[in-house]
Structures are given as structure tokens and as C-alpha cells.
């Protein structure tokens, strides 16, 4: 069982697939993402269409971990792809209360999410992709 896959092959665009949500799997995902964040400025596109809604405790754990990673300053933008309107609402609410400068947006397709995320990279990094 896995919480997520993380693909850095298109660096600085990081593609994330979100799946199962348990406290242990969330910790492993956050650890891996924190290590990636050390490489330098990046954007993410997280495909959450196959994930289930985490309970309140897991949401707090996940959001706190994501906040710590954002606080490092290298995460430039966060795009999330979702089908479920309840999950979109949870993420939208999170985006209102989080205290990070990096923008977050929810999309219905990976393609539109990637276009938006890439636009948030510095021009020299976009040109290198």
C-alpha cells in the first residue's frame, strides 16, 4: 500500500499521484517530499482523483507537514487535480487558511494543472523544460 508516487523526471515540475491515506503513509510521503524540496525551487501537480478523503486527524497531519515544507520557501506553486467535489471543497478551504505565499489551485485535468503550475516557474526554468 502506498500514499503517493512522486515523479521528479520533469524537474522542476514534480508530479504526485495520491492514493491511500494512513498516518504512516502520510509520514513517508511528507519525508520524501521534504527531501525533494531541498533540491531547489519547484512546482507540483498532484493527481488526487484516486485518493479517498482523509479524516480530520489525517488532514491536520498532512496540512501541518505540507506547511513545514512550504515554509522552506522552495515550493513555488501547488496544483491539485480532483474529481470529487467534497475533496475540492476541503482543498479550497485549506487554501484560504494556510499561511504560505505559494498559490494553490484545483483543476479537473492534469493537463490544465500542469500548464498552470509551469506558468509559476521562473522564466529561465520554464525555458529549460
Q: What does this protein structure show overall?
A:
With 129 residues, the protein is an alpha/beta fold. It contains five helices and five strands; from the N terminus they run E-E-H-E-H-E-H-E-H-H. The protein has helices at residues 23-37, 56-71, 85-97, 110-119, 123-127, and strands spanning 4-10, 13-18, 42-47, 75-81, 104-107. Strands 1-2-3-4-5 form a five-stranded mixed sheet, with helices on both faces. Strand 4, helix 3 (85-97) and strand 5 (104-107) form a beta-alpha-beta unit. Helix 1 packs parallel to helix 2 (56-71). The chain starts with a strand and ends with a helix. The model has no long low-confidence stretch (mean pLDDT 89).
Amino acid at each position: 500500500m502506498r500514499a503517493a508516487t512522486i515523479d521528479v523526471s520533469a524537474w522542476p515540475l514534480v508530479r504526485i499521484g495520491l492514493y491511500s491515506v494512513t498516518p504512516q503513509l502520510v509520514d513517508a510521503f511528507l519525508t520524501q517530499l521534504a527531501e525533494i524540496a531541498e533540491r531547489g525551487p519547484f512546482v507540483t501537480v498532484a493527481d488526487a482523483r484516486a485518493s479517498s478523503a482523509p479524516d480530520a486527524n489525517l488532514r491536520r497531519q498532512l496540512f501541518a507537514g505540507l506547511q513545514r515544507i512550504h515554509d522552506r520557501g522552495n515550493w513555488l506553486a501547488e496544483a491539485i487535480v480532483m474529481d470529487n467535489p467534497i475533496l475540492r471543497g476541503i482543498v479550497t478551504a485549506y487554501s484560504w487558511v494556510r499561511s504560505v505565499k505559494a498559490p494553490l489551485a484545483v483543476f479537473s485535468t492534469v493537463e490544465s494543472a500542469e500548464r498552470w503550475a509551469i506558468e509559476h516557474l521562473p522564466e529561465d526554468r520554464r525555458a529549460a523544460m
